[in-house]
Please model this.
Amino acid sequence: MSRIIGGVAGGRRLQTPRGRSTRPTSDRMREGLMSALGGALTGRAFLDLFAGSGAVGLEAASRGAAPVHLVEREQAAVQAIRTNVAALDMANVHVHAVSVSRFLSGPAIAFDVVFVDPPYSDPVQDLLTVLVRDGWLAADAVVVVERSSRDPALEWPGGLVGDRSRRYGEGTLWYGRRP
Model:
């Protein structure tokens, strides 16, 4: 079981899906992510792709991000997200129970922060290219990708430049920005 770390819902527990189909982002990693983003979340549009329990997007919403969109296709995870959104009473959080590719094939919305956490074995370069090419990123957008710490350095597509990375045990967060 994880919890919201800070903001208006700080300390509230989150339901997580059972089984091994999702890999929740650790509390420590989420705290590091939110610290790296600083106070820049208030009123910023946040997209959480491969949302799992929704913990990252809900953490952002608790800290003022709005609107927040959570995209997840696994039904057990979607149910956990919906339960968490209802329990936290977060009206600015939108749940999309579809695959990431299907969501990104729809009309683009420019997001200020995009968090991408696919299964560690999935490649991300094509997904990042779609985000840039199809208008999913605001002019000053930040893109954060969670990958296995065993993976080689993330290669950013044109339209994004790597900013920094931070390792948290088995996972590493890679930060990119629009140039």
Observations:
- The two ends are 38 Å apart (CA to CA).
- The beta strands are 2-3, 13-14, 46-49, 68-71, 93-96, 111-116, 137-148, 161-168, 171-177.
- The helical segments are 27-37, 55-62, 75-88, 100-104, 125-133.
- The longest helix spans residues 75-88.
